[in-house]
Amino acid sequence: MFENGAYLYGFTDATFHPADDLRGLRDAPVSVLAYGGVAALVSPHPIQRLAPARRNVEPHHRVVRRVSAEAPLVPAAFGHISESGADILGVLRGNHADIRQELDRLAGTCEMGLKLSWRTDNIFEFMVRSCADLRDARDRAFQGRQPTMNEKLQLGSAFEGALNRERARVSALALASLAHVTRDTFDSPPRDEKTICHTALLIDRRRLADFDAALRHTATLLDISVAIDYTGPWPPYSFVRLRLQSGAEPTAA
Fold first, then answer.
1. Counting Cβ atoms within 10 Å, is residue 214 exposed (0-12), middle (13-18) or buried (19+)?
2. Is the dihedral of CA 243, 40, 71, 114 positive or negative?
3. How far apart are CA 117 and CA 248, in angstroms?
4. How does strand 109-118 pair with strand 195-204?
5. Which residues, in sequence order, are CB contacts of 105 under 8 Å at separation 6+?
6. CA pseudo-torsion sign 21, 22, 28, 34
7. Does domain 110-237 bear CATH number 1.10.260?
8. For residue 48, which phi and psi values (nearest 5 degrees)?
9. CA angle at residue 138 from 135 to 139, to 5 degrees?
């Protein structure tokens, strides 16, 4: 079955058996290779470099989403191909304790994405209205004349400081209101000035209704200028801490 390589979707319990209709990359059937109570979720695939194209990424995430909703799963990043099923079994043997620990830690969880951002066309003017210190710095720099380069740099620094302080304040308020339904968080750096925070939240699947209620309450605590966007539930990609031992890792294609 694995003469031409095995594509890895993640690790699960050895007792899990994929449904017959579960198909992965290249429409190949998904199966498990088990060792000592843990198993690798795999499908046959030629050994080749995989482009992160939709035709490849979509079936990977579809398999991971479906299985993670049915059984404990430590999802693998896209693109891991091993040369054979024997190599996959070697990974299971060499990392058995760590895989078991990670499966137990993430069992019954999912990931929710939370993004807070400011509803404004001009973030600088918004911060000037919100922050007296920044407003004073702006007024001093533009006292009926063009500011010097040094004054512009100082004003830019003041803006960054005010922006980051407000980000920290709003983020802390929101995350504190969600803390009772959140097991862990993972923050990504804001990609633009209007983004307040972009955070992944680890949630127990059985508490998704509680999370929705907590998020509605969070919205009442925030100013109308703050937009809340959330996605999920997803497999807990951001919270996987598994690091396979060198020499036993599947080939990353």
1. middle
2. positive
3. 42
4. antiparallel
5. 241
6. negative
7. no
8. -160, 160
9. 85
For residue 15, what are the CA distances in angstroms to 97, 176, 231, 232, 240?
A: 17, 38, 30, 26, 21
- Domain ranges for the chain: 6-107, 110-237
CB atoms within 10 A of CB 57: 15
Tokens 């006292």 sit on residue:
143
0.70 surpassed by pTM: yes
Q: Looking at residue 6, what DSSP letter applies?
A: E
- Tokens for 237, please give them: 């990609």
- 206, 208, 213, 217 alpha-carbon torsion, rounded to 10°: 120
Q: Using CA atoms, how far apart are residues 79 and 9, in angstroms rounded to an integer?
A: 9
Spell out the per-residue pLDDT of the chain, length 253, in tens.
456 789 999 999 999 999 999 999 999 999 999 999 999 999 999 888 888 899 999 999 999 999 999 999 999 999 899 888 889 999 999 999 999 999 999 999 999 999 999 999 898 888 888 877 777 777 776 776 677 777 677 777 788 888 899 999 999 999 999 999 999 999 999 999 999 999 999 999 999 999 999 999 999 999 999 999 999 999 999 999 988 875 444 443 3
Tokens of 51: 């482009």
Record the tokens describing residue 125, joined without a space.
């003017």
User: Residue 32: which of 11, 63, 59 has the closest Cα?
Assistant: 11
Distance of CA 124 to the CA centre of its chain: 29
* Six token digits for residue 30: 């998904």
Whether 137 and 235 have beta carbons less than 8 Å apart is answered as no
